[in-house]
Every structure is written in C-alpha cells, then in structure tokens.
Structures
1.
Amino acid sequence: MAVKVLNTKKPMKHISLCAILLTIVPASFAQKSGTFTGEIMDQQCAQMQSHDNMMKSEGAKDAKECTLSCVKNGGKFALFDPATKKVYVIEDEKKIRQYAGQRVQITGSYDDNSEVLHVKSVAPAH
C-alpha cells in the first residue's frame, strides 16, 4: 500500500498571507479621515457635555479658562460634537490649545482603535 505525502508548503504560504491581510485590512478601515466640527473642551467636560459643573468647582469665568484649567490639572483636550454627542480625544494639544473653549473645524483622522483624533489643521467654525 502506497502512502502519498502531501506538500504542505503552499497551503502554509496561503494561510500566512491570509493572516497578514486580516491584520492589515481592518487597520486601514479603523481610520476615518475628514472634517470634524465641535467645541474644544477638556475630556471630562466634553463627556458631561457642559462646562457648568467644572466652572463652578474650578472658579473659571468662561469655557476657555475652564478647559485650560482642567487640562493643566491632568485632563486631555477633546473635541465635543454636539450634533452626534461624540467626544474625540485629541492627540496633539499644541495645535489646538489656542482654540480652547471655541467652536472649530478640525481636518484630520480619527483612529477607532486608539480612540484618538489626529489633527492636520484647525480653523474656527462659523
């Protein structure tokens, strides 16, 4: 009785290629590029959808002062989109610090995996 030996090299290459594609393809869809509009806030106020509580506890007189105070105390900058109620944590505070408390349009990309908005440019929204 003869035993036929199967060549397993080709199926392994196929499996490896599939594994690579499965890791690369979802990563490319995790980034959403475009324009994001909302108010520059600190993450905590953005999640509460208001500066009211923090302004009282921080003694801040306006949204800008509240945002900068919360970030100084360890918070992160975020963009709050009131239309969708979405909070986007922002990765580069240097680009948006001057817009604290203001309504802006950010051009960039949002990474679903890290939940971070990568900023290319910022402009005041009208």
2.
Amino acid sequence: MAFVVLFTTMSFTIDMHFCGDTLIDYAIFKSPKTCGMEQTQVAEKECQSPVFSQESCCSDEQLVVEGQDDLKNAFESLSFEQQVFVAAFTQSYSTIFEGTHSQEVPVIGYSPPLVQQYTQVLHQTFLI
C-alpha cells in the first residue's frame, strides 16, 4: 500500500531521443544517449557547407508524469476505542518476538523410539 501511495504521488520525466521515427535511447534520471547525427550536422554547419544546410532528422522528446497532490488524511483524530485497539495491537505484536529466558531443553530425557523394521535393508539402499 505504501508503494502505491509513493508511486502515485511521485512526479518524474522520461527523456527520449529519436532519430527519424526510431527510438534510440530513453532515460528517466539523466539525459538520453544520442545517435551522433546531430554532432555531424553542427560540425558541417561550422564550415558553411551548402550541402548540409538541411534540418537534423533527430529530435528529443520529454514525457512528464505528474503525481497527485490532493491527498487527504483518512482520519483527523483517534477515538477512544481506536486508541485502545492500537495500544492492544502494539502490545500483543511486540510480545510475539520476545525470546525465552530459560536454557532448558525438554527433549533430553526422552529415549528414541524402537525400530520396528530396518528400512535400509527393507528397501535395499546401502551406503558404499
């Protein structure tokens, strides 16, 4: 339940790099890797070459996922019955994990059961 509340209230962006219609890379927390085509366009434009004067085929898109901000508390204050329940639940839950203080092992005085039949010979399984 906490994961659902955290995920629905968190806002994040997804950055995508397209070369033509093909998705090259996407990233959530950093900028995406590029295909390298826009770097060659910039280098050729510096030389003032008329051949490479067309637009770049690459594009960057950004998808923004907004989280919700209108959360309200489910309760303002606890009634007396709810306070009693929370106190009883906390007390009973905390006593579950308490260890025993005695070092007594109750099975020491018991003898093992008598063997009715020898199982290894019965099933003919022998250790070699």
3.
Amino acid sequence: MPIRIADTSANFASVSRPGVSAHLNVTRVFQFYNDVLIRRGVDDRGSYLDNMVNCISPEDEDPPQWGNAIWWKNKMWYGQIAIRRGRMRSLAASLDIIGHELTHGVTEHTSGLVYRDEAGALDESFSDIFGVLIKNRSRGEKIYSNPDRWDWEIGSGLGERGKPLRNMKNPKLSGDPVHVREMSRFDPADLEEDFGGVHTFSNIHNKAAYNVLTTRTRARGPFVFTPDQVAQLYYFTLQRLDRVATFEDVLETMLDVVRTVYRVQAEQTQKLDAVTKAYAAVGIPRE
C-alpha cells in the first residue's frame, strides 16, 4: 500500500529525498512540454500526476533494488540501485529517465505506437530524444543552444558495469546498431524478450535524430535547426504517425512537417535537405 509523503515542516528532503527528486524533475519535464511544445501535461489536459518512489518488483530483482523507472497506469514508478556502502540511488534523480518515461505517456496519448518491432523502436527512440533534449535544456541556455556540448547519454551509470543505457551520439558504445544494414546481424529469437528489439533498433533512429540536431549550414556555421525547432519537429511528427509506423514513415512525415512549418523557400529547402541527409546516413531513405 503506497504511503503519501508528509512532513509538518514542509522539509520533505528529510523525509524522502527520492520524493523531492521526483517532483522536481517531473516539474522540469512538464515545463519543457508546456514552454517549448505548448502541451498541458502528459495527456494535454493538465491531468494530475502521482510519483511512486522506492518501488520494488521481486519478480524482476531482489528488493530493495529495482533498477527501473516506468510510466504505468498513468503514474510514474521509480526503483533504486545500490551504489556503495548500502546507499541507494533512486532513479527519480535521473532527469533524462523521467523525460523518457513521461514521453511514453505522451506517445500513448498521441500516435499510440504499438510497442513491437519498428513501431516499438520508434516509441523508445522518441522517448530517448525528448529525454536528452530535456536534460540538456536544464543545463542552461549556453549548453542547450550548442549541441556540440551536449551530454548524449541516456541513463548515465545505469547500464552494465556502470555504463549508460544508451548513447545517441555513439550507439556502438552499448553494442547497438547505427545503420539499418546492421539489423540483419541480430537473431530475431534473441530479441523476443525485448518485443522484437525495441531497445536495440531504437538506436538507429536515435542516431538519425543526433544527425538532425548537429547538422550545420556550413562548416563552423550555425546549426540548421535550433534545439527547440528539433523538439517541435519530432513532436509534430509523433502526433501524425500511424500506430504501426516504420522508420521510413517517420522520415516522410517529418518532411511534410518541415514543408508545413517553414514556408520561405530557401529555408525550407535547407531544412528538407538536412533531414533527408541525416536519415540517409543511417540507411533510412526517402520513398
């Protein structure tokens, strides 16, 4: 039975540091969606959100550890991992993870991507993209405006041997593919526990998004898209996708979004070219 955090002094940090982290980081995610994308919460209706901290799942891992955080039943659930001398680190402290999980909720209320195969990989990738956008925006405008200075890791320290779960700049660091042609080297039977490889093949689309974010108009010139423009580009695309969308569907939908949003011919052509090349570099061609 969940116990609500309460303290007569309002010093909640003395009662539950994970609870404070959860509320602070959820607020940052909500502010991003509100300020950049004009979205009122996960369901766009300003719904109330419960944060459930110090969660365990004995079927998955021996308590008190549970190295997971999930969006489930319209709530956020946070586990924790042991770090040293019996101390635990709550996943509520990881802003990119919270941005990732709450974006699953946004996807649920928009395109409703089926969590399987390419559509499921896109579901995971959109969550990674927004998780990284939100994390780097929280680091201040100087860093946020220059993706060359970004932290591209998802789940820093939460992967095997203290590595990140994924890295958008270099997916190979976690043994994941960066090009469509690499998909054939994975045995489908080995991917069944991951719904057809949703956490593996998502990295191909992650790399395409990294390419979009870091493409410049010329060497050492300005970026073709600002980070806010990239956020809007992927958000508008997500809203228009079919539930069983493929990588190619995302590219075609995104190009349509560019044509709709950017009406000045020279700017539109430049942005269309940037997106097309970013996706071609990972083996996703235009139809």
